[in-house]
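User: Please predict the structure of the protein below. I'd like the answer in structure-token form so I can feed it into my own downstream comparison script.

Assistant: Understood. Taking the following sequence of 212 residues as input:
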Amino acid sequence: KVGWYNAVLQPGFHLPYPDDTLAFVVLSTPSMFDKALKPFVKKEQLKIIGDPVDQCVSHHLSRVKEKFPDQKVDIIFDYEILPSRKPKFLAQTAAHVAGAAYYYQRKDVKLDPWGKKKIYGVCIHPKYGGWFAIRGLLLFPDTQVQFLQQFAPVDCVSTEEKRIELLEQFNFHWQDGRYRDIIEVKERYSEEQKAYFATPPAERFILLGLTQ
């Protein structure tokens, strides 16, 4: 429910919908690369002018919207920002309140070792660890779900030591991706997918066989 999200944020970040409005957080799993992105690029390569992943996600969520012709469906993508430069929604907070992935933050560590350093939080999925992404939000403004029950996300990094290790790796060594394996995962990115996301965005077109 939108109200779960708004309840944990300052008013400047609230979504402008009634509290009981139904929303879905959309995640991409490791298999997205092979099952969605590559077929999309192959079929739509002449139309790809922006980020291929963003265009692929937009394509698939537009198809979801088409499945509900009688309902209003609003889509907010993870990369969208307001004129104030603030994101349109805080993806990790949304994932946490939806019960999709646990958002580990500095406040989840009792004995804080970082002093005045800025420490960013990170979501960990109980099945995929850090090998997933939050891609967007589907909102159904005409659907009010007064009695929807909220479930907490799975706290899969439950010890103080592991949480410190996770936040250390994410904040200071994120390039090596070790934080993604903070727990034992069922599936991770393929070597091809790792190479794609490790490549600067401007050079990714070459990897996909697109000339830009």
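That's the full token string. The radius of gyration is 18 Å.
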